[in-house]
Design a protein that fits this description.
The chain has 367 residues and is an alpha/beta fold. It contains 15 helices and 13 strands. 42% of the residues lie in helices and 21% in strands. A nine-stranded mixed sheet has the order 3-2-1-4-5-6-13-9-10, with helices on both faces. Strands 7-8 form a two-stranded antiparallel sheet. A two-stranded antiparallel ribbon has the order 11-12. The structure holds calcium ion (CA).
């Protein structure tokens, strides 16, 4: 090495102009790489825990997450919701097995909501929760830890790094907060699928995930961490249509073909009910975690209606971030103060739906 190095040094001394030109070229090339290099390509993958009740669209969300290099799925925790806990856990294991990702722990969590009976929704998700698509038994095995405990453990192990992505009823997340409130300050952010500021799907007021455990949802919104709400306001505008299905059916692969089966069920159901396409509820929450620019948001203060004759489970959103305070004067109330309130959520109000569908298709095609 030494003679070569010496020769190199000599060369530089003998021809300073050539050396400077080479230095200029190197700097210019480095600059070109910086300009042309994909922004964020060098960023480490975002660590996420997916909390889910699989569930047809949950299964699509899991596949999207597992096939996206921007995400590092640290665990999948299962909650009762669309189907019973046992069925949901088996489904999560089946999907993770299909993706050949037994390295991702799948842990079962809450089998019922905090303060009410569970509502399951096989009418939308099929008797097996996967649109009645037959899938071979899972080769991955369930993690023995309780879902909320696994969340607590992983958050403490990597403070400030974990993004929680709950796409089912919020029971597991609320249980984790109740058991260990210190996780709130240690979680990077929460990107949840649930709620709506423009009407519900289970009732005119309430969206399914929030309706299924309003007390848990209120705990999650009030906890004090950064929440992004991916609700019906955007998911109902993100429709997977028959032409998308035809496109995905042109490629093959175990995950690809499973997705075609599940999405065929969902698209057919949506057409039966006049929606013209399947709302990509849970996959969009994963999409927002991958690429925030898919949505536009507005800061709001979201509270969950836990009583209400017709509105239990509604996400009641203060958009103006002010409240009026009244005091009793004789036989009437008088507004005496206008108070500012702090927002607790970024609520998604706009979405580039087709761009998201293209992202989803690109990740599953031929897999
Ligand atoms: Ca779900």
């Amino acid at each position: 090495m030494r003679p070569v190095l010496g020769a190199h040094r000599e060369g530089k001394l003998q021809d300073g102009g050539f050396g400077r030109r080479r230095l200029f070229c190197a700097v210019w090339l480095a600059g070109l790489f910086l300009v042309l290099g994909q922004p964020g390509a060098a960023e480490p993958a975002r660590k996420v825990i997916l909390d889910t009740d699989p569930g047809t669209d949950d299964a699509m969300a899991i596949l999207l997450a597992l096939n996206s290099p921007e995400l590092d799925v640290q665990a999948i925790t299962v909650v009762a919701g669309n189907v019973l806990l046992e069925q949901g856990t088996e489904n999560a294991l089946k999907v993770v097995s299909l993706a050949e990702r037994c390295d991702v722990p799948v842990a079962a969590g809450a089998r019922r909501p905090l303060a009410q009976r569970l509502t399951t929704a096989e009418i939308w998700h099929g008797a097996n929760g996967l649109g009645n698509v037959e899938v071979e038994p899972p080769k991955c095995e369930v993690d023995p830890r309780f879902g909320p405990d696994l969340i607590i453990e992983l958050v403490h192990r990597q403070p400030g790094e974990i993004t929680l992505v709950p796409v089912g009823p919020l029971t597991n997340i609320a249980l984790a907060v109740l058991k260990d409130p210190s996780i709130v300050a240690l979680v990077k952010e929460v990107v949840l699928m649930g709620g709506s500021v423009s009407g519900g799907n289970v009732t005119p007021a309430a969206e399914f995930n929030i309706y299924n455990d309003p007390e848990a949802a209120q705990i999650v919104f009030a906890a004090g961490w950064r929440v992004t709400m991916v609700g019906l306001d955007v998911t109902n505008r993100t429709l997977f249509r028959r032409e998308h299905l035809a496109e995905l059916a042109r490629t093959q692969g175990r995950q690809n073909d499973f997705a075609v089966g599940v999405l065929t069920h969902l698209v057919s159901l949506s057409e039966e009910h006049g929606f013209g396409g399947a709302s990509m509820h849970d996959p969009l929450a994963v999409g927002v975690t991958i690429d925030r620019t898919l949505v536009s948001t507005q800061a709001m203060r979201v509270e969950v209606e836990t009583r209400g004759e017709r509105t239990r489970g509604e996400t009641v959103a203060n958009r103006q971030l002010i409240v009026e305070r009244r005091s009793l004067r004789g036989d009437r109330y008088v507004v005496t103060e206008i108070e500012r309130v702090e927002p607790n959520a970024e609520v998604c109000i706009g979405v580039e739906a087709e761009r998201f569908i293209r992202l989803f298709l690109s990740r599953l095609r031929g897999k």
